[in-house]
Amino acid sequence: MARERREKGDLDAYDQVELKDYVVKIRRCAAVVKGGRRFSFNALVVVGDGKGRVAYGYGKANEVQPAVEKACKEGEAKVRRSNPYSLRGTTIPHRVIGRYGASKVIMIPAGPGTGVKAGPGVREVLQACGITDILTKVHGSTNPINLVKATLNGLEQLRTKEQVAALRGVPL
Among the four 19, 32, 57, 96, which has the fewest Cβ within 10 Å? Predict the structure, then answer.
């Protein structure tokens, strides 16, 4: 359920890029008060441009829609500050393991036409990033917040051949 947005800011060229946001999870929290229960909502949203930049936002409010809007706003601000991840076409350059808390996400590059083989939480991050062919496996906790952070941790570890050669000072 991706929503496409068009930014109208005149700050820089990146403001003209179309961002997609995916609602990963909406949770309801209940506080017991004198008159009964008071409900509030938490929203976890992943925002990306489909070209290697992706971030998440987390919002809380008394209604669902304001919580989602707060999360989207936070995610969009993080996307603008982030650097693009190293991709190879429609997949990743090499196998990588992302970890966060008790969650572990294994990401394996796949050939063209494979699709995104991933569960909820991981799938939204990869789609927002622009990856269309990948295999994944989750071990440990399946908490959506930890899965999103573990997937982003794995994407941060990606390096292309050129980047590794430059780091080592070795010509290809």
Answer: 32
Which CATH code for domain 96-165?
A: 3.30.230.10
Predicted model pTM: 0.86
Give the single-character DSSP code of 130.
T
Domain ranges of the chain: 2-81, 96-165
pLDDT digits (tens, 9 = 90+) for 12-42: 555 567 899 999 999 999 999 999 999 999 9
Cβ-in-10-Å burial (0-12, 13-18, 19+) of 100 comes to buried
> Could you give the CA distance from residue 88 to residue 139 in angstroms, rounded to a whole number?
25
CB 68 within 8 A of CB 43: yes
Instruction: List the Cα angle 31/36/41 in 5-degree steps.
Output: 35
Do residues 116 and 145 lie in contact, with contact meaning Cβ atoms separated by under 8 Å? no
